[in-house]
């Protein structure tokens, strides 16, 4: 019976992993605390999450050091970095995932975790400005 359960457990694990996933994709591990904005951003964009470390307010510099493209214009799929105190960010900053950009190219829709409720994914409109940058 134990062998059957073990085999079923392995099969369940394998069925959750797409067979076409590359080695780096399958091997990526989220090093951030589950429920935090950084954890969520690293889950949504593991290519970025695997290259940066630290609190959200450290992601921009970490991304630049890693050679990732950054800028001030929102793009769908980008990670937005809010510096401490900007648009409600805590002392540690905040990161979110850009879902869509408004026609004015200044306002954008994000999904994010831990803002305004701890450990919960929410969506909101945000805007560009001082202390708001993007990792592409």
CATH architecture: Alpha-Beta Complex
Sheet with most strands: strand arrangement: 1-6-2-3-4-5
Give me the CATH superfamily.
endopeptidase domain like (from Nostoc punctiforme)
- Average pLDDT figure: 85
State the order of secondary-structure elements, H for helix, E for strand. HHHHHEEEEEE
State the domain count.
1
Low-confidence blocks of residues? 1-27
**CATH fold label:** endopeptidase fold (from Nostoc punctiforme)
Cα-based radius of gyration, to the nearest Å: 17 Å
Q: How much helical structure, as a percent, in the residues?
A: 25-40%
Binned strand content: 15-25%
Gross morphology = globular
Distance between the termini: 49 Å
The helix/strand class is alpha+beta
Number of H- or I-type helical stretches: 5
For the secondary structure, the number of strands is: 6
Largest sheet data = 6 strands, antiparallel
Top CATH class = Alpha Beta
Structure, described:
- There is one protein chain.
- A hairpin with a 5-residue loop joins strand 3 (94-101) and strand 4 (107-113).
- This protein has five helices and six strands.
- The protein is globular and about 35 Å long.
- Mean pLDDT is 85; it is low at 1-27.
- The protein is an alpha+beta fold.
- The chain has a single domain (31-135), classed as endopeptidase fold (from Nostoc punctiforme).
- Strands 1-6-2-3-4-5 form a six-stranded antiparallel β-sheet.
Short description:
The protein has 136 residues and is of the alpha+beta class. It contains five helices and six strands. A six-stranded antiparallel beta sheet has the order 1-6-2-3-4-5.
